[in-house]
Amino acid sequence: MPTKPTASQAAGIALILVTGAIHFIDAPGSFGDATYKGLLFVANGIAAIIAAIGIYRGERLWGWGLGLLVAGGALIGYVISRTVGLPGLAPDVWLEPLGILSLLVEAAYVVLFLLSRRTTPLSAQP
Q1: Domain for residue 82, yes or no?
Q2: pLDDT in tens, the chain (126 residues)
Q3: Minimal CA–CA distance to 101: which of 8, 20, 9, 12?
Q4: Which end of the chain, C or N, has fewer beta carbons within 10 A?
Q5: Is 92 among the domain residues?
Q6: Residue 12 lies in a domain
Q7: How far is CA 126 from CA 21, 92, 119, 121, 123, in A?
Q8: Longest dimension (CA), the chain
Q9: In a domain, 96, yes or no
Q10: Where are the beta strands (DSSP E) in 1-119?
């Protein structure tokens, strides 16, 4: 286990924890929409914490991978919930402030994940 996370790990941990926190904050209102939506929000928050632990421990497969599932799944869920709507629910409003913040943080995590998978560091390229 690293004693000090790399910059990439620290950014990944921060981004995935913010993603989880946003879903924990929004979970009570989501239960009001549909029980399954609230449960998904709580599950997202718990999975984000587990992913952050994995990233801290240097677990590239399950730590970073779970984070990708959390952030990527939330991004996809946001788009679905705003276009066709979730099962039993009408489409939501696109420009909700917490939703926009969530999109930005989740997209940043996905980009960081993809960049962390490069085989040649950017500094080593000509």
Answers
A1: no
A2: 446 889 999 999 999 999 999 999 999 999 999 999 999 999 999 999 999 999 999 998 899 999 999 999 999 999 999 999 999 999 998 898 999 999 999 999 999 999 988 765 555 545
A3: 20
A4: C
A5: no
A6: yes
A7: 40, 46, 14, 11, 8
A8: 54
A9: no
A10: none
DSSP 8-state assignment for residue 5:
-
Q: Which residues, other chains included, contact 73 with Cβ-Cβ below 8 Å and sequence gap of 6+? A: 44
- pTM of the predicted protein model: 0.88
Domains held by the chain: number: 1
- Ramachandran area for residue 96 (φ above 0: left; ψ -120 to 50: alpha; else beta): beta
Give the chain's length: 126
CA atoms within 13 A on the CB side of 4: 1
Helix (H) / strand (E) containing 19: helix 7-33
Q: Which residues contact 31 (CB under 8 A, 6 or more apart)?
A: 37, 38, 39
Domain enclosing residue 107, as ranges? 7-75+102-117
Which of 121, 123, 126, 41 minimizes the C-alpha distance to 81?
41
